[in-house]
């Protein structure tokens, strides 16, 4: 009975999704709206400008006093400027959505959209920067050169494997948080969903066997975070385009790259073969490979252990349709899409993570802080009542973002990475107030007509 109901539920959403995409494509609504507004974000002052005399305070000559203070103590930039709440969203456009290397200008609409989400969900001022630089080392030097402006850096839509190198170096060489959302954001959301899925099926993360399809940015970070959460890497079976990773693969031995490290740490059974062999007899399947459907077959899901958990996360189409995974025996299914239950969505993660990190003026975002965010998401959903169709908060549950921010800020203080050692209740109060105030401002601007109604 349950499976039939679920199939109908998914099928209804499938039809709605197809109709919606058709409507958007036919009407060109996205193009119309972007052209109508001339982009999605702007900069507004947050200080009063009562008369032009106020500029003698905000600008010259009064501003010189503030500049001298910062010159004597650079940490005061956090007190006198918006550095404390300003991040850069930086891309080279080399892996934008599922569109490939479309270049920095074509990536700008995505960066603006990200900035919009940062502001609305996290009250974070985010500025998009699209760099015409594909070389990793030069990219790093540019980011370091502009970093004094910002309290944090969000790397976005950068191809692998250079994204791993860029993130690692910038995390080491800058004293502000550096985050690659395609890696850490997706991994954190995936872990949060898995924590609750395992609670429902009554399995322990240290005991389950996990098949991982795809070893790009998202799954590389997911493997690392799963290990930090207690999963046994020897019980992970990781697949790339050439098959299961294992130490006897000549191509991996020769390159000795990031996949080689995964190969020697995982696959304790020394499995060989492809996706089917990796999936067989596992408890959990996490796929972040290429859009489906039919990338993963129903008969492979049927070979998983009882009470299987399946996360096909490719967008816009998951590697296998949720109803097919359910029909094949999966008990819990999560995708990257909002039109199916259990959306494993990094938008639940990055606004709160940065809100928390910026509130305490953190120097880093670590895996421990990601684990804190994942646990906060999982606990929020658990309090609301877990079910097979609800293992992770929904985007509409806006109360979750201050809770994620608080968990991250508290962990930064515990780790000694915070410039401001605030108490838990202080972090929550600041985050909740800033996020709610931002959303009220945007609503009021719309009601007053300063944000116009979009064209039909």
Biggest sheet descriptor: 6 strands, mixed
Walk across the major sheet and give the strand order: 7-6-5-8-9-10
- Tell me the structural class: alpha/beta
Q: Round the mean pLDDT to the nearest integer and report it.
A: 93
- The gross shape turns out to be globular
Terminal-residue CA separation: 42 Å
* Share of β-strand residues: 5-15%
Number of E strands: 10
What CATH architecture of the largest domain do you see? Answer: 3-Layer(aba) Sandwich
Compact summary:
The chain has 456 residues and is an alpha/beta fold. It contains 19 helices and 10 strands. Residues 183-413 form the Malic enzyme NAD-binding domain.
Q: Can you walk me through this structure?
A:
This protein has 456 residues and is of the alpha/beta class. The protein has two domains: 40-176, Rossmann fold (3-Layer(aba) Sandwich); 183-456, Rossmann fold, CATH 3.40.50.720. It has 19 helices and ten strands. The strands form two sheets. Strands 7-6-5-8-9-10 form a six-stranded mixed β-sheet. A four-stranded parallel β-sheet has the order 2-1-3-4. Helix 9 (181-201) crosses helix 10, helix 17 runs antiparallel to helix 18 (400-414) and helix 18 runs antiparallel to helix 19. This is Malate oxidoreductase (Mae). It holds the Pfam family malic. Residues 38-171 form the Malic enzyme N-terminal domain. Residues 183-413 form the Malic enzyme NAD-binding domain.
């Amino acid at each position: 009975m349950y499976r039939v109901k679920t199939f109908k539920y998914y099928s209804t959403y499938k039809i709605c999704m197809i109709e919606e995409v058709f409507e958007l494509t036919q009407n060109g609504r996205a193009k119309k709206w972007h052209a109508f507004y001339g982009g999605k974000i702007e900069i507004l002052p947050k200080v009063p400008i009562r008369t032009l005399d106020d500029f003698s305070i905000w600008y010259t000559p009064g501003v010189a006093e503030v500049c001298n203070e910062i010159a004597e103590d650079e940490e005061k930039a956090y007190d006198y400027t918006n550095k404390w709440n300003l991040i850069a969203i930086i891309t080279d456009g080399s892996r934008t959505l599922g569109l490939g290397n479309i270049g920095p200008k074509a990536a700008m609409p995505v960066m603006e959209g990200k900035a919009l989400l940062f502001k609305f969900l996290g009250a974070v001022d985010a500025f998009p920067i699209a760099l015409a630089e594909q070389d990793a080392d030069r990219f790093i030097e540019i980011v370091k050169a502009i970093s004094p402006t910002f309290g944090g850096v969000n790397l976005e839509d950068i191809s692998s494997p250079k994204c791993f190198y860029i993130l690692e170096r910038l995390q080491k060489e800058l004293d502000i948080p550096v985050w690659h959302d395609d890696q850490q954001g997706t991994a954190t959301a995936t872990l949060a969903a898995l924590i609750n899925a395992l609670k429902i099926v009554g399995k322990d993360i240290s005991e389950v066997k996990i098949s991982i399809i795809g070893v790009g940015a998202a799954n590389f970070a997911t493997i690392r975070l799963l290990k930090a959460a207690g999963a046994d890497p020897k019980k992970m079976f990781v697949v790339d385009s050439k098959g299961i990773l294992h130490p006897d693969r000549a191509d991996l031995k020769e390159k000795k790259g990031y996949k080689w490290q995964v190969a020697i740490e995982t696959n304790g059974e020394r499995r060989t073969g492809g996706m089917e062999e990796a999936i067989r007899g596992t408890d959990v399947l996490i796929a972040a490979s290429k859009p489906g459907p039919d990338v993963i077959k129903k008969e492979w899901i049927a070979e998983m252990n009882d009470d299987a958990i399946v996360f096909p996360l490719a967008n816009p189409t998951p590697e296998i349709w949720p109803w097919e995974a359910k029909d094949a025996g999966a008990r819990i299914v999560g995708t990257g899409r909002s039109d199916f239950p259990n959306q494993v969505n990094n938008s639940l993660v990055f606004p709160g993570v940065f809100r928390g990190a910026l509130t305490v003026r953190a120097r880093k975002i670590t895996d421990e802080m990601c684990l804190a965010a994942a646990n906060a998401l999982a606990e929020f959903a658990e309090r609301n009542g877990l079910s097979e169709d609800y293992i992770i908060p929904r985007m509409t549950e806006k109360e979750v973002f201050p809770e994620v921010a608080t968990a991250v800020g508290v962990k930064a203080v515990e780790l000694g990475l915070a410039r401001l050692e605030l108490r838990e209740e202080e972090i929550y109060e600041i985050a909740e107030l800033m996020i709610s105030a931002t959303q009220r401002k945007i609503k009021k601007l719309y009601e007053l007509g300063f944000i116009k109604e979009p064209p039909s």
